[in-house]
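Table S2 (continued). Query chain:
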Amino acid sequence: MKGKIAALGVVVPALLALSVSPASSAGVNATADAGVTAKGSGEQFVKLGRNVGCWYRADEPDHLTVGSRKLWGTVQITRCTPRPPDKCHVTAAIANPIYNVAHKDDGWKSCKKKTLKIAYTCQDMVTKKQYMTVGSIAMVYKGHTQSHVFPSKKVTQFCA
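Corresponding output:
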């Protein structure tokens, strides 16, 4: 049950950001104006209006050292436009294909370069399972809102 509630933690902030001001979001088209573009480095870009937005990415979960019981994932805002959005809300989760196993919420803060790290302590280092890092970003600029949920690639780790 805890994992299912954590799964909502990734989606709910993004949905709440869109529902804050539905009338003001009329000027933001989620498919065209959002400008969600991906680069070879895994970075994606979301823009609000013209020349305002941030680049972000989710890194695949991994152990920092061989035999470590902790699986680490990171979600990053790598940079923002010279005129950044007013506020950003970032969340990170480590998930297996069914539900989130760990979740972290950074809250609403200024939009700038930041890294949100999250850890999951493995109970069993014998079983292999698939995991991915799932991030969400919500941005507000002059009353317009935009959000995006983005996963890393799935990786198979000795962790259960």
